[in-house]
Amino acid sequence: MRWWFRGRLWGHHDFLRLWLSQWIDMFGGQVVDLALPTLAILQLHAGPAQVGVLVGLEFVGFPVLGLVAGVWADRLPRRPIMIAANVGPILAYASLPAAFVLHVLTMGQLYAVALLASVFNVFYEVAYQSYLPSLVERRDLLEANQKLEVSHSASHTFGPGLGGLIIQLIGSAWAMLSAVVALLISTAALAAIRHPEPRGRVAAGEPALPATFWAELREGIGSVRSNDVLRGLAGCDATMTFGTNMMAAVWLLFAYRQLRLTPAQVGLVLTVGALGFVPGALTATVLARKLGLGRALVLSPLVSAFGILLMPAAVLGPPLAVLSAAWLLIYTPSPLFEINQVSLRQAVTPDRVQGRMNATIRTLVWSTVPVGAVIGGLLASSIGVPRTVLIAGVITLASPLWLLAGPVASLRAHPEPAGA
Fold first, then answer.
1. What's residue 198's pLDDT?
2. How many domains does the chain have?
3. What is the CB neighbour count within 10 angstroms for residue 420?
4. Residue 170, helix vs strand vs coil
């Protein structure tokens, strides 16, 4: 933990601007994650299937555009892509309170907003993860990812409580304006970065970029398919994401309708549960060294799965306490997995193919989000939310099998970074 506070990147002003941008963007995103389904459930009286579709649409852009975004992220400067990708969500989110005031808000508009934000988010996320290795030195990637994950963790810790309070005070439609303000500030921080991006991303001795768009796309897919480490990480992450999003699509229905919680109580539950995020992020590298990198990556989804399996017990005991404990188990190991798997992916991949590698894995992983959300919604409509959540927990529990079947589980430490 002392290493995190003493890291080299505290003196890297452009990294600090990127970090600030992410801090603000993440807090705004937490408000959206709670306000959008709350608006559907409490204002438009949406059912499980409708909420599942809404959550799914927030991520459907990756199956459709993820690989395309990866090619462009390796062809074009990545920071301008990130800045441009913030414009669409700003306009989309601002339309919701306007429609609410005019009494014309519909589920169709919520679906359109979720879809539009998803499309722009594809380009932002691929460019963002691919931009970091060109902003900091390869030896600083682990420190950079740890710092970025701390802000992600802090947003999960305090964002839901803040979002729940905002929704309780001014309503879910007006709460979307806070996401608009956050995106504006985040974009300004990105625009302030002065570090020039390299013109060419092919290191000495490496083959030139393929001549055509489709050849570049195939090379990106091949970089994951041919690498046992990347393939195992992608399979584990995709399975875990499928299970957790089956649960995430329906748990608010469970909280609001079956347990009769208020938005402020839901925000409190998420805040208490997310208290494990920051210590999890601060100790991620230490735990990976003590346990071994592979064991740490295997352990993380197992703990999260037990949290999902605990959630239905809220009908038996004090719901606030049980749900808080469940989310604590789900959230705490997340930084341990995320920091180490992203750093491992970036380290074993040359810069020339970072964008396409990230896009390929993100496409595979995030393709499971809409599928998991829709299946979760349909299952909850037929067998109930608690049983659906139990199925989601079992699927998540199986995700480390991908790592145990390949070389990742036996890794003791991060390998030396691939050439830029």
1. 67
2. 1
3. 17
4. helix
